[in-house]
Amino acid sequence: MKKLLIPALILPMVLAGCGKEDVADVSLGVLTFKDIKVNTFVDPKVPGVTCHVASIEDNLSLADPSDSSVSCRQTGEITAEMIASIDKSKAGEVVFHKSKSVFFKTMKIRRIYDAQTQTLLYLSYSTKEITGSFKHSLSTVPLWGTAAWEVRAPAPASTK
């Protein structure tokens, strides 16, 4: 039974490194057994935005570190129809997630729309507190210059 348990625990770690969305795998050294993996994804509702997520993976651990960063850019057309289809609540919506542990820790990317500045915010965060803080990073994609940009009437000048 123990002989079957070890391969069952190792197989998911091996397969985790085989994702088709991996664009980079950088070793942090022979003795650390840790890598920086860079994943890419296209926003499912705003396909004119591509994000790259860098995170550390520990090949000898059942729980990867929570550190991650996200960078998103406009790589195609962004239309008003796309923006109309997204969740515009203050919490936004999860557009990417990746398991970081067998103990329910997940890294998520959440898209939030800032209507005031007409900007898409992409917030990367860990769902588990580590040493007193939640790890997170932020990237923004302004809609200025896209078909989704709304020209608004200027605010009336105040009279004194």
Indicate the structural class: mainly beta
**Lateral arrangement of strands in the main beta sheet:** 1-2-3-4
* Helical content (DSSP H or I, runs of 4+): 10-25%
Are there runs of 5+ residues with pLDDT below 50, and where?
1-19
Mean pLDDT: 78
Helix and strand string, N-terminal first? HEEEEHEEEE
Count of domain modules = 1
Shape: elongated
| Overall strand count | 8
User: What portion of the residues fall into strands of 2 or more residues?
Assistant: 35-45%
The largest sheet is:
4 strands, antiparallel
How many individual helices?
Answer: 2
Distance between the termini: 83 Å
Radius of gyration: 20 Å
Write a concise synopsis of the structure shown.
This protein has 160 residues and is mainly beta. The protein is built from two helices and eight strands, in the order αββββαββββ.
Describe the protein.
The protein has helices at residues 2-16, 80-84; strands at 22-27, 34-42, 49-58, 68-74, 93-99, 106-114, 119-126, 136-142. Helices cover 12% and strands 39% of the residues. It has one domain (17-142). Strand 5 (93-99) and strand 6 form a beta hairpin. With 160 residues, it is mainly beta. The protein has a 4-stranded antiparallel sheet with strand order 1-2-3-4, with no helix packed on it. It has a 4-stranded antiparallel sheet with strand order 5-6-7-8, with no helix packed on it.
